Amino acid sequence: MSHRSFALTAALVAVVAALSVALLAPQVATGQNQSSAPKATTAGKTWTPPRTPDGKADLQGIWSDNTLTPFERPKSLGAKEFYTDKELADLTRRVRAGENTEGAELGAANQQAVRYDLELYGFDRTKLRYTSNRTSLVVGPEGTVPPMLPQARERNAERNAQNKGHEFDSYANRPLSERCILMNQERIPMTPGANEGNLLQIVQGPGYVTLVHEIDHSTRVIPTDGRPHIPQNIRLWQGDSVGHWEGDTLVVDTTNFTNLTNYRGTGEKLHLIERFSRSADDTMIYQFTVEDPTTWAKAWTAEVPWTKTKGPVFEYACHEGNTMISTILRGARVSEAEAAKKGK
Amino acid sequence: MRNALRRAVIASMAGGIVLLAATLGAAQAPAYRAPRTADGKPNLNGIWQALNSANWDLQGHAAGKGPVASLGAVFSVPPGLGVVDGDEIPYLPAAAAKKKDNQANWVKLDPEVKCYLPGVPRATYLPYPFQIVQGPQNILISYEFAGAVRTVNMGAPTKAPGDSWMGWSNGHWEGETLVVDVTSLMEDTWFDRAGNFHSDALHVVERYTPRSADTLMYEATITDPKVFSRPWKISMPLYRRVEKNAKLLEYKCVEFAEELLYGPLSKKPSN
Amino acid sequence: MRTRLLVAVTAVILLLAAVPAWAHHAFAAEFDQNKPVKVQGSVVKWELTNPHSWIHIDVKGNDGKTVTWMIEGASPNNLYRLGFTKESLPPGSVILVEGFQAKDGSTRAVGRNITFKDGKKLFLGLSEAESGPSK
After folding, report:
1. Neighbouring chains of C at 3+ CB pairs within 8 Å?
2. Cα–Cα distance for residue pair C13/A114, rounded to 1 Å
3. Residue B251, Cα to own-chain centre: how many angstroms?
4. Which residue of chain B has the CA closest to C78?
5. Among A19, A242, B45, C31, which residue carries the largest CB count within 10 Å?
6. Is residue C99 part of a domain?
7. Of residues A253 and C104, which shows the higher confidence score?
């Protein structure tokens, strides 16, 4: 089971999902779940969102994307793209009862559980839930990220090889998330976990949509005036985003990533297209398509329902309180000194 | 005789009224009325930037030598008239000594050097742009430096559950002015590179008033009874970034501070 | 036909096997699982910081000496949403901590499990448990 999208972030907000679940109905609403890939519309009744003062679809609010739906489809399910309501209810019941299953992904709960008894922070397994009938967030007959091209495998292997044996030499050898440069839960495209507080606050002003991720206070101020991307030679960790409206759907196009951003092993040719549309008062469908011709032979798409949740989003100043790097490096120096004393 | 007197009285009264009207007219040129947003509020949307050396020193100061000899004039201290009303920052005696110490050791102590979030009001007059995005319930202010951001609650005021670097902001309108009340600020931020500091009792009230199509007047009243003997105020214009497609760019400065913060913990090359 | 799913009966807390290698690695890089810690102490300070919060506690050793330990907790942000504030854990509150010591040998530990003397878990037990002397 691939957990690469849930790389270690030393302390994620553990249980907002559980709390937001507590505020919402435990059963998955059936109306919105039969969306066909890859258009981000719901089959059946369409819902008209309220408008911002300047007439755009109102996406504002505080949203959470926690779900048990795994990112990639379990192999055993083959081409099965949707669970029936009964299958989903059964799965939900088993996960809540404590079973660990391929069909459910606990995301950051896994990493945190090593560190803390999550119940201290409000984790309530009985409130975990699926937010759609999908068997995986990645849509389509395969439901998996395409296999990596050989050149990408080589590129990543070479990078890992360079770091091998030097993982604790310096801050530069540590992961971006540990350095509070780019935490995994602030990355785009945005991907969820079961109980992490991947809270997103959306504020819209004329000509702009602003997304603020709670983790590392990651802010994207996206112009919707149809302007072009910034010059090619300016590379940014989170790339450059430009947006436009297609009816009530916000479409955001992002390029200009650095060659070190390394989302799932990609290079600087990473191109991300995100679509945001509200399908109900408390639901926003987030659909994204990822392509990088130097990493995958074809683009792939995932779809994640976001649910309105109670805030507030609170400041998450990662770097200012970062003790991880210093503790880890100091620990490595202590281990080396001890090993040297033993005459190794 | 009585008619002449009455005419004189009336004439002098009229003259007085004209004089009064002229005086009032001169002192009170009509205030600028900003265009409105679609929901009827003064429109502060846009990318803004301060143009002064307040981040070096809030008070008036001559040019000075920079901290790094090899950078010569490049990182020297530019002069500035100062942005403090009355040019005095009213420190309590013990705090005044701490300010002196801060200033003498600012390279080591200034949180800006470590790429820490700048706090309020410093974020406003860092020499980098920031963007105001006005939603109906919240006004978001995104700062280029260190990706600092804050959300101003425009609904009924709420209380902060805890302290933060950028504080807790509740806002409301007073005519043309956006008034932002900022509390629960952590004590670890500074006001400038001259060592001006505060405690966790800091309370800032900001006022953003449109001054013309492309300028705002910014005022911040600072109250901190643990550090200052009375409230004091800074004010400065903010200028709109008018170039086409002006955009805040990523300024994730953590990388640039890591060698300073963690360099000594790196593995020493073995012989 | 019912789809068969692979099911392993494992409690969520014992997910060590499921944790990807590098994630576990970072935890192991910070804290030493060969140095378990079990201390009881009174709260001196609660730092509600990110990415981790820190509870400073004074622990009285068998030798009568008091040592201050820094106990690492998770992000406080969700605790805020659950209604806790910095006043919720007053100085003087007595807590029991189980965890692992920092690899650099300092008196720091990750607070894997934190309870009050009556066994009620921190933080959700805060509202019901006795707190320390009033502020």
Report:
1. A, B
2. 7
3. 20
4. B161
5. C31
6. yes
7. A253
Return the half-sphere exposure (C-beta side, CA atoms, 13 A cut-off) of residue B270: 5
DSSP A81-132: -B--HHHHHHHHHHHHTT-EETT---THHHHHHHHS-GGGGT--GGG---SS
Q: What is the pLDDT of residues A278-315, one digit of tens each?
A: 999 999 999 999 999 999 999 999 999 999 998 899 99
Distance from CA of B94 to the nearest CA of A (A): 27
How many whole angstroms separate alpha carbon A82 and alpha carbon A65?
19
Taken in order B34, B171, A12, C53, is the CA torsion positive or negative? positive
The answer to whether the Cβ–Cβ distance between C85 and B162 falls below 8 Å is yes
Please, which residues bridge with residue A274 across strands?
Answer: A252, A288
- Best of C47, C54, C85 to substitute, by most chain B Cβ atoms within 10 angstroms, is C85
A255: phi then psi, degrees, rounded to nearest 5: -135, -165
Q: Is A339 helix (H, G, I), strand (E, B) or coil?
A: helix
Residues 6 or more apart in contact with residue A6 via CB below 8 angstroms: A105, A107, A108, A110, A111, A184, A191, A193, C20, C23
User: Which of A205, A218, A329 has the CB atom closest to B135's CB atom?
Assistant: A205
Which residues of A, range 85-124, sit inside 8 Å of B by Cβ? none
- Chain C, 68-97: which have a CB under 8 Å from a chain A CB? 72-75, 77-82
- Of A135-149, B7-21, C40-54, C63-77, the poorest mean pLDDT is in B7-21
Put simply, the answer to whether A119 touches C20 (Cβ < 8 Å) is no
Give the number of A-B residue pairs with CB atoms closer than 8 Å.
130
Alpha-carbon distance A23 to A44, whole Å? Answer: 26
**Smallest Cβ distance to C77: which of A100, A168, A214?**
A214
Distance separating alpha carbons of residues A14 and A197, to the nearest angstrom:
6
CA distance B137 to chain C (A): 20
State whether residue B269 sits within 8 Å of chain C by CB.
no
Condensed to tens digits (0 to 9), the pLDDT of residues B190-246 reads 999 999 999 999 999 999 999 999 999 999 999 999 999 999 999 999 999 999 999
> Is some CB atom of chain C closer than 8 A to the CB atom of B161?
yes
Which residues does chain C have within 8 Å of residue B161's beta carbon, measured at their own beta carbons?
Answer: 80, 84-86
pLDDT computed for residue A313 by the predictor: 93
A208–B contact, CB cutoff 8 A: yes
Q: What's the pTM?
A: 0.86
Provide ipTM, 2 decimals. 0.88
**Helix ranges restricted to H, C11-93:** 21-30, 77-81
With a CB cutoff of 8 Å and minimum separation 6, the contacts of C60 are: C41, C66
Q: How many domains does chain C have?
A: 1
Joined tokens for residue A311: 């805030």
Please indicate whether, in this complex, the C-beta atoms of A180 and B262 are within 8 angstroms of each other: no
Whether the pLDDT of residue C135 is over 50: the answer is no
Structure tokens at B252: 């994730």
Q: Is B78 exposed, middle or buried (0-12, 13-18, 19+ CB in 10 A)?
A: middle
């800074």: which residue's tokens?
A: B234
Partners of residue B162 in chain C, C-beta under 8 Å: 48, 76, 80, 85-86
Q: Is the dihedral of CA B36, B141, B172, B89 positive or negative?
A: negative
The distance of C51 to chain B (nearest Cα, Å) reads 13
Looking up residue C84, the CATH number of its domain turns out to be 2.40.50.140
